[in-house]
Design goal:
Blueprint: H1 2-24, H2 37-72, E1 77-80, H3 83-86, E2 95-99, E3 105-111, H4 113-124, H5 132-148, H6 154-162, H7 165-171, H8 176-190
Parallel strand pairs: 1-3
Antiparallel strand pairs: 2-3
Bound molecules: zinc ion (ZN).
Length: 217
């Protein structure tokens, strides 16, 4: 949002300087003033500098939205928290989906700034040796997708997500082997450390076992 305003501001400034030059370029003696190349060039350069991260952000959100919609089986929207939005955010969670007054989760999620950065770096990597933060970031996207799918129970959402982490990783470009390894690592290394409320009923034959072929157990 801040970047967008700065971008529009500098483009407007470049336009104002150019229009002023057009209107005043010939002075009373008929001399033509040179075009203010440096001022206009600087304004356009700053605007372009703002446009690059905005385009990268939009592309990342588009990619995550496509993958999440594929896993949810319907259109959902993924928003990546921007650096500006972190200033007013005190929450410790890595992502969230709001519930409507009717108790039905929205079809939109916010993934926090750090996990979005981890998703971005994982997407740009060869996906062979993901860091634990990258593994968690992929899982957070699957977990929030399960909420958008309509699951409100945290332990159930967590378990449904673990059974779909491999599919999510593949939807984001991992090979089947890389995707299975990532899902397996979350199940073995991260899930046992999850707080109460997120665990229980998961695993082979558990309450939330959906007997999917790509389950990590
Ligand atoms: Zn949750």
């Amino acid at each position: 949002m801040v970047l967008t305003l700065v971008l529009i501001g500098f483009l407007a400034l470049a336009a104002v300087v150019s229009v002023r030059w057009v209107l005043t370029r010939v002075d009373a003696l008929g001399r033509i003033a040179p075009f203010p190349k440096i001022s206009v060039g600087l304004c356009v350069a700053i605007a372009l500098g703002c446009a690059v991260p905005l385009v990268l952000h939009a592309r990342l959100e588009h990619r995550l939205t496509e993958a999440a919609s594929q896993i949810a089986g319907e259109h959902v929207h993924v928003h990546c928290q921007t650096a500006g939005e972190t200033w007013t955010d005190a929450g410790a969670e890595l992502g969230f989906v709001r519930w409507g007054r009717d108790g039905v989760p929205e079809r939109r999620t916010v993934i926090k700034y750090d996990p979005c950065a981890d998703l971005r770096s994982w997407l740009a990597s060869d996906k062979q040796r993901p860091s634990e933060d990258q593994v968690i970031a992929v899982h957070v996207l699957t977990h929030e997708t399960m909420h958008m799918f309509g699951i409100t129970n945290e332990a159930q959402a967590e378990c449904a997500a673990m059974q779909r982490d491999a599919r999510m990783a593949q939807a984001l470009g991992a090979t089947p082997a890389q995707a299975q390894a990532l899902a397996h690592r979350y199940w073995l290394d991260v899930y046992p450390r999850m707080p109460d409320g997120y665990t229980g009923g998961c695993g082979p034959g558990g309450t939330w076992d959906e007997h999917l072929p790509v389950a990590p157990w």
